[in-house]
Amino acid sequence: MHSFKELSAQFEQRFSQRQFPQSPANLYDPAQYILGIGGKRIRPVLCLLGNELFDELHPDAFEAASAIELFHNFTLIHDDIMDKAPLRRGQPTVHTKYSEPAAILAGDVMLIYSYEHLNKINSKVRQKLVGVFNKAAREVCEGQQLDMDMEQQSPEQVQYTDYVNMIALKTSVLLAASLQMGAIIGGGSEGNQQHLYEFGKNVGIAFQIQDDYLDAFGDPEKFGKQPGGDILVNKKTFLLLKALELCNPAQKAELHRLMAGNPSDKVARILQIFHECRVDEWAEKEKERFCASAYKHLDEIAVVSGRKQHLRELADFLLTRQH
Amino acid sequence: MHSFKELSAQFEQRFSQRQFPQSPANLYDPAQYILGIGGKRIRPVLCLLGNELFDELHPDAFEAASAIELFHNFTLIHDDIMDKAPLRRGQPTVHTKYSEPAAILAGDVMLIYSYEHLNKINSKVRQKLVGVFNKAAREVCEGQQLDMDMEQQSPEQVQYTDYVNMIALKTSVLLAASLQMGAIIGGGSEGNQQHLYEFGKNVGIAFQIQDDYLDAFGDPEKFGKQPGGDILVNKKTFLLLKALELCNPAQKAELHRLMAGNPSDKVARILQIFHECRVDEWAEKEKERFCASAYKHLDEIAVVSGRKQHLRELADFLLTRQH
User: Fold this and answer.
1) Are A138 and B113 within 8 A, CB to CB?
2) Looking at CA atoms only, how far is residue A84 from chain B in angstroms?
3) What values do phi and psi take at B187, rounded to 5?
């Protein structure tokens, strides 16, 4: 068994080689470019960890992990076009550096390469793996669409449960599927696969709540940037949606005034309302609720506790970060 | 065995049902929309014909055919964005009717659904089918990129063989792969698969030459529109590229003058040069060369001649059209 760090290094060693043909360069260079601007490779390593929960690391897990990381980067390229984002990880996005047509096509071919990796798996579990992968892939598209739909709505039109569902689809199901695919390769039972899937899904949602929380209440020194970025752009976050539910009519009116204008003390005054209606306390409890569910599912996986050590450490690390 | 028309009706009957979930509507309605604006379904029917060349029609062939038609429509959606095309088959393109983000995402999810159809095939040939599909899918992306690359070049910079290669990738390999996938499902040998693939590829190239020829020299009454559309927009066609090779310096200078400006008699004068340097005769011979190669490969497929009847009729129909 290996730690996250060890598996990350193993994956990176294979994945840092060029993943595509040299030519046509205008197709494959943009695809290679986004792989080169970093990322923590969390999803492929989750796949490897899912494998090692049940059995020795199998070469097939690296194919599945590559498919997952290519898929993730394909979604980043296309999402950045849709969101008109100029930067990704501090570097120009693919459509900014190359062109929008190049970025569309590079994303497309990366998705095809994902399936090529899955198709290299010579095992009777390949069909099941592709099924799990396809479901997650469809759901990620659905999550992106729901996110775009919600951007067109006022915060009050967005139901909290719909928002949680959107976040789960957009960000958590791929984490969950990565773990499950590893479990399938490792020979985990259907029941264990499902617990592992739910573990990943709940960790993902808890992480997103924490992310929203830190953007509002994070310690600037530990967080590395001034909090309030989401607040400034009126982003629909867990905090804003819940604050609108919890606050009184006067606070609600004030929130709307602040969001409609851009006063210089907008962040401070919205944070003040968040405090007053105790959405910070709520967020900590809500994160805790998803964390508890995640750890409960991890506990219920029927393997000896020691095998779960690295997954537990990873969840602890992801869910207690202050930065 | 069934004719193209019969198989087309069978496929359409299944495929005319909604192919996607109802929700999120903003994701799946654009995907369903493009399937509803028609198309001749040539590729999926080629897959069914490829199956029937060797064996009774198998349900798996309909899954493969659906995957192929979804893939084809995915490429249409994304190509139309890249080409900024307002219309497709006389109807608004997906990005025009909905939005560019919706069109990108609808294309993405259609590609994922292609693989979902392939994954439904419960047979030991599934891996081989996905391999053939993936190769064609990558090549179609490569062809689209090469086409965009060539648009940035002057006609003289484009080598004729590179142009043929681009056309083959962009338009012919999917026809070829559709036939081969049918052959795989029908149990055709590797050798027979390859002959069928080459048949499809050569038919595709011959068809494109014919298409270019008809746009220039077609009888307006039979062709249904005034010829010269490609000439007006300086489109790189088989004819233009070859004319630049065949013509003398004076004709070449005249061609460049006509392409640089937009005189009212541009089409007539360029057609005159095409005639003078006999590019019309050349195109007929060049088409004939690819036709001959196609029929030779069809002849070499080791099944009784009667089984090839419907494929031969289809090729005859496609390659003798005047409209």
Assistant:
1) yes
2) 10
3) 85, 15
- The verdict on a CB contact (< 8 Å) between B102 and A130 is no
Handedness of CA B111, B115, B116, B120 (dihedral sign): positive
In chain B, the residue whose alpha carbon lies closest to the alpha carbon of A136 is: B112
Phi, psi angles (nearest 5°) of residue B287: -60, -45
Contacts of B314 (CB under 8 A, 6+ apart): B4, B46, B49
Report chain A residues whose CB lies below 8 A from the CB of B111.
108, 111-112
Tokens of A254: 């004030």
Spatial CA neighbour of B215 closest among B243, B198, B239, B187: B239
Residue in A27, A112, A145 closest to B137 by CB: A112
Q: Which residues of B touch A149 (CB under 8 A)?
A: 24, 26
Distance, in angstroms, between B87 CA and closest chain A CA? Answer: 18
- Within 8 A of B82 by CB-CB distance, chain A residues are 100-101, 104-105
ipTM of the complex: 0.95
Inter-residue contact A117 to A64 (CB < 8 Å): yes
| Length of chain A measured in residues | 323
Q: Which two tokens stand for residue A300?
A: 């219920």
Helices (H), chain A: 4-15, 25-36, 42-52, 59-82, 94-97, 100-119, 126-151, 160-167, 173-186, 190-217, 220-223, 229-232, 238-246, 249-260, 266-276, 279-300, 309-319
- Specify whether the backbone of B102 is left (phi greater than 0), alpha (psi in -120 to 50) or beta: alpha
| Cβ of residue B149 closer than 8 Å to a chain A Cβ | yes
Contacts of A105 in chain B (CB under 8 A): 78, 82, 141, 144-145, 148
CB count in 10 Å sphere of residue B111:
25
- Measured distance CA(A105)–CA(A177) in Å, rounded: 25
What is the phi/psi pair of residue A18, to 5°? Answer: -60, 130
User: Which residue from A257, A256, A214, A260 is spatially nearest to A237, judged by alpha carbons?
Assistant: A214
Q: Do A193 and A180 touch, CB atoms closer than 8 A?
A: yes
Q: B185 and B39 in contact (C-beta within 8 Å)?
A: no
Chain A residues touching B24 at Cβ < 8 A: 142, 145-146, 149
Q: What is the pLDDT along chain A (323 residues), one digit of tens a residue?
A: 999 999 999 999 999 999 999 999 999 999 999 999 988 999 999 999 999 999 999 999 999 999 999 999 999 999 999 999 999 999 999 999 999 999 999 999 999 999 999 999 999 999 999 999 999 999 999 999 999 999 999 988 999 999 999 999 999 999 999 999 999 999 999 999 999 999 999 999 999 999 999 999 988 777 666 778 899 999 999 999 999 999 999 999 999 999 998 899 999 999 999 999 999 999 999 999 999 999 999 999 999 999 999 999 999 999 986 54
